[in-house]
Structures are given as C-alpha cells and as structure tokens.
Amino acid sequence: MAMLFRNLRLFDGRADNLAEGMEVLVEGERIKEVSDRPIASATAQVVDCGGRTLMPGLIDAHVHAYGIDADLGRVERLPRSLQALEAAERLKSSLRRGFTSLRDAGGADWGLAIACETGLIPGPRLFYPGRALSPTGGHGDMRPNAVLDQFCGCAAPAGAISLVADGVDEVRKAVRGELKRGAHAIKIMASGGVASPSDPIWALQYSEEEIACAVWEASAWRSYVLAHAYTPESIHRAVRLGVRSIEHANQVDAPTAAFMAERGAFAVPTLVTYEALAEEGPALGLPPESMAKLAGVRDAGLGSLEILDRAGVKMGFGTDLLGAMHRRQSDEFVIRRQVLPAAAVLRAATSVNAALLQQEGSLGVVAPGALADLILVDGDPIADIGVLTGQGERIPFVMKGGAAMVDRVSRG
After folding, report:
1. What's the pTM?
2. Could you tell me which residue ranges the Amidohydrolase-related domain spans (predicted)?
3. pLDDT at residue 149 above 60?
C-alpha cells in the first residue's frame, strides 16, 4: 500500500528547523520520495496532515521491557509469563507515545522481539542485548546476601534482567550465549548503580580482562558493548577498552567527555528516571538503600548533559523507567530541553539513536530509502518540545514499516 503525506511541516531527523511545503511518499515499508514539490502517484492514499509536524518515529535507547517493578529483586521472583504479559503492555504504550523503536538495556529476549516483529504484539521494533552481565555483587546481582552461597556454576543464576558471570571464561560463555539468542549488543555493568542495594556508585565492576573479553566477543559478531557507568573512572576505563555506548554517565567530567568524543563513543543519559524515582520510588517499593544513593546521581544529571554537549559527544536518548513510572517516558524531552536546543534533543531520539543502533539511514530519518517509521505531531516540537509528552494524545498517527499502528487522522 502507498501513502502520500501532504500539508505538513517536516522534521527530517537531522535539521535544526522544520521544513515547509514538503510532501512524503511511502510505498510498501519504505519511504519512496521526499520533495518540496507536489508528488504525483496514481495509487497512493493521500493523507492531509492538517499542518501537523511529520517526523521520524522516536527511538528510546534505554528501556527495560521486563522492568515491571521498581524493585528489580522482586521482578526476578515473578513468573516469566506474567513478566512477558506486562512487558507487552509497556511496549504497546511506548508505540502510542510515538516510539517506533526501542533498545532494551537488559532483559528483553528474542521471543519478545519476534512477537513485535510478527505483529503478535503491536509494539515498536525491539533491539536488545539479552540479559545484562554483572559480576558477583555488581549492579545486576539482585540476590539477597543470605542466599549467595546457594548458587554455583557458570553464569548462575539466570535472572530476568541480568545474569552473574565472573572471570574471563564465564564472561566469554555468557556473551556467546546472549549472541546466540539473538542479542543485538551486549550489556555489562561497569560501575555501581541505584537500583541494586549493595554496591556503591563508585565501585568498579569487571576487570579490564573481562571487559576486553566482552568487547572482543561482541565485535567478532559485528556488534558492540554498552556499559552501565556513572563515574569518570568507570567511563574512561570502559571506553579505553572498546565499549561503544555509555549508559547514564551522570558524573562524567570534562576530560572524560573529551576522551569519549575522541574515541567516538556514545552517551545515553536517562535523566527522567531519577526524577521519577525521587518522587515515586518509595511508594513503588524501591529499597531504602537505593533511595540513599539516588541524590548523588540525580543532582549531577543536567550538568552532565552540558559537559557531554560541549565535548561533542554523540548523545542518544534513553529513559530507564521501571514499573508504573514508564508512563513518564516522554518527559525526558522536557528535562533535556532545560539545557539543550530542541533540535538536538529531537536528533538524539531519532538520527543519533539510529546511528547508535547501527541503523543509520534506515531509521531515525525521513529520507528516500529509509524505513517508513513516521509520526504526526499536533504542534511544533522545535518551538514547544512538550507536545511530545503525555500518552500520545498529541500524536494522532504512528506508522511502523509503512503500516499505520495508530491512526486518528480524518480523511475527509
């Protein structure tokens, strides 16, 4: 089926401003033509956009589809079937908000991805690293201290979000296992975190040999490693060893940001999750130990955006929201707009994230040959980025691969 979009303002995923007087033709699953002149098509259904903004489908590069509870330790004790059903609802809600692609940052699996790909779940495209790798006592180790000695063997236990792997041999086997199960990238823990109760934020996780092993194994599959890291030491170390994507990076300093830019590493800040945790965490079951660690990373958040931007680091868009806080996914746009230009924030969620996902030119842009992942927005997101917030009320049309997934646009 072909669709011809007219009477629109265009954000193409790369520009600083909206373009007027453009038309866009979609044939099949891809964009056929983008023109500042009328496009002729004998077969296309004409969509009068009513002056709305047409732009690429949004991409969130840090979600946890199975992060259905603020207490990740509790998630690990839930039935996998329940996790999958709740994950499906989270994916559907992201699509309604205009997110046509997601990169899960730990937990999602090939079954969930296939369900999205085949339409069993009407959700976004799902890129995933499988379970995140954590050393014993690391950010992904959610086991109660009392039961640590009950587990043994390589990469045990196997949890919903992460798995424990210690030493080069276990890391190698775990990486190969996740790649075999279709992982698009590999996630490791390189510093302490908020959601895990026992590890300090400043704690280094994984030895240089273990990180280098994960990087080599991923690169052998033409993939890459993303690392959870907050502090300058943990970030610099990970990037020096070949990690391509740094998640969070709240406490980054200027020299470390400059090193990231020199090496071509991406940063994926997730500021909305700290605001949500501060306001809702205790009521939703976040452990007191986690709340105590929150302030240090939350307070540094906006400053980290400025540091990364000045250094020229490629910044993707992520959210990292758990449980019921997932509804705040699009609030990340407004938070970033406090210190960054609107166009830069929009590029982070479109063309920059597409490059991060190794999908440059296919996703995140409105251009001939790109996949027809498109949204229509009521209003001008350059002038007021807040039009993207909420639950999709101002996004009446969402297309994924040429198929209308949400369509509230009148045809006559």
Report:
1. 0.94
2. 53-401
3. no
